[in-house]
Design brief:
The complex is a heterodimer.
Chain A lengths: L1 H23 L1 H7 L55 H4 L3 H5 L53
Chain B lengths: L1 H6 L5 H10 L7 H25 L3 H4 L3 H11 L15 H5 L4 H20 L5 H21 L21 H13 L3 H4 L11 H12 L1
Classes of the chains: A mainly alpha, B mainly alpha.
Chain lengths: 152, 210
């Protein structure tokens, strides 16, 4: 009976001895040592890994004044024909409100005679004639292109 | 049996056959009846299943030119036909339920499609295009009602790795789970062309379900 008590006491003491310094050093360790988890508290969910993110900063900048905005997502299979334009599923009013997508510019609703229409004008119907998807790829041809704003 | 007919002279043929059917047999052993019944049961059930599967594949579906010339050719351009890993979803994978009861129900409904095939309701591209919005919204309604059951045979929220989805996709899918949306609410026209006025119809459908 006595021996069990002494073992228990020893275990308690060793636990306190080893445990205390860890608790005491938490703030000191944070500065230099990082867990694999990073600085995220255990009860918080880790943010999604940064894989396959084509655009992390919202709208993409334009390289020159007249540049049609680039498309920061995949759209190869979108149906754009006389029947329907799938881009407008999110970018036409009122869908753009609900989907949180940039609305097509108002200029796109005027036909060639300057008459305002309720739908995107036929002359502007085929989005991909001007707007192209952007990818983070290497330039196909080596070139010295610079943004217009960077040119002296 | 002869006694029966003598007793009831007014008995019709159907009644006669009915009585004969329920008479105990004196000629065959119970074992014979059981074995014959069992074997023919397997045979008929197998045959039934075979017939059901024979009408449940792509080759059968595109046997009708309405399917081959319109929806099949469009489907051939899509990711469900041709993709990186070579997994293919054919017509019945999306359009015929896998569970038995729903499958039978769908098969019975298909008799309407046969009727319209022989009637020639959509036997030209022009007729098909004119009807397309109605046909498509029929399918959308069904998929909405079943919570996109056929989609979810392969695509399941629980098995999705949001980290390998594009940032927009992962965000919207998380929203969809929270708001209890179903696949077809957004994913229309993924295997076939969208008809004119599809988005207006979509708004109507989604509004009605809210």
């Amino acid at each position: 009976m006595k021996s069990i008590k002494s073992i228990l006491a020893a275990a308690l003491i060793s636990a306190v001895m080893t445990g205390l310094p860890v608790i005491g050093n938490v703030s000191a360790q944070d500065a230099e040592t990082w867990s694999l988890r990073g600085a995220i508290a255990l009860e918080d969910a880790a943010p999604l890994a940064d894989v396959k993110k084509q655009n992390t900063s919202g709208k993409l900048g334009r390289a020159y004044r007249q540049q049609p905005p680039l498309i920061p997502h995949r759209m190869e299979k979108y149906q754009i024909n006389s029947k329907i334009n799938q881009c407008l599923r999110c970018h036409d009013w009122p869908y753009s409100n609900e989907e949180g997508a940039p609305k097509v510019s108002e200029t796109h609703y005027f036909n060639r005679n300057g008459v305002a229409l309720d739908t995107v004008a036929g002359t502007r119907w085929f989005c991909t004639q001007c707007h192209v998807p952007q990818v983070q790829g290497r330039a196909l041809v080596r070139n010295k292109f610079r943004n217009a704003s960077e040119v002296e | 049996m002869s006694n029966n007919t003598e007793n009831n002279e007014n008995t019709g043929l159907i009644k006669l056959v009915w009585r004969w059917f329920w008479l105990p047999t004196a000629r065959f052993a119970l074992g014979t009846l059981l074995i014959v019944g069992f074997v023919s049961g397997i045979f008929f059930w197998g045959g039934f299943n075979w017939a059901m599967e024979a009408t449940n594949n792509e080759a059968f579906c595109i046997g009708c030119h309405e399917m081959e010339a319109n929806v099949y050719r469009e489907y051939k351009q899509t990711v469900h036909y041709n993709n990186r890993t070579g997994v293919r979803a054919t017509c019945p994978d999306c359009h015929v339920p896998k569970t038995w009861v729903h499958k039978i129900a769908r098969k019975i409904q298909a008799s309407n499609e046969l009727y319209h095939h022989f009637l020639g309701t959509v036997d030209t591209r022009e007729k098909f295009e004119a009807k397309r919005l109605k046909l498509a919204s029929n399918v959308w309604k069904v998929m909405k009602k079943t919570d996109s059951r056929e989609c979810r045979n392969c695509h399941n929220f629980d098995y999705m790795d949001f980290t390998v989805q594009e940032n927009r996709a992962s965000k919207r899918h998380a929203e969809a789970i929270d708001t209890g949306k179903t696949c077809i609410d957004c994913h229309k026209g993924i295997a076939h062309e969208l008809p004119e006025g599809a988005f207006d119809e979509e708004r109507k459908l989604n509004k009605a379900s809210e």
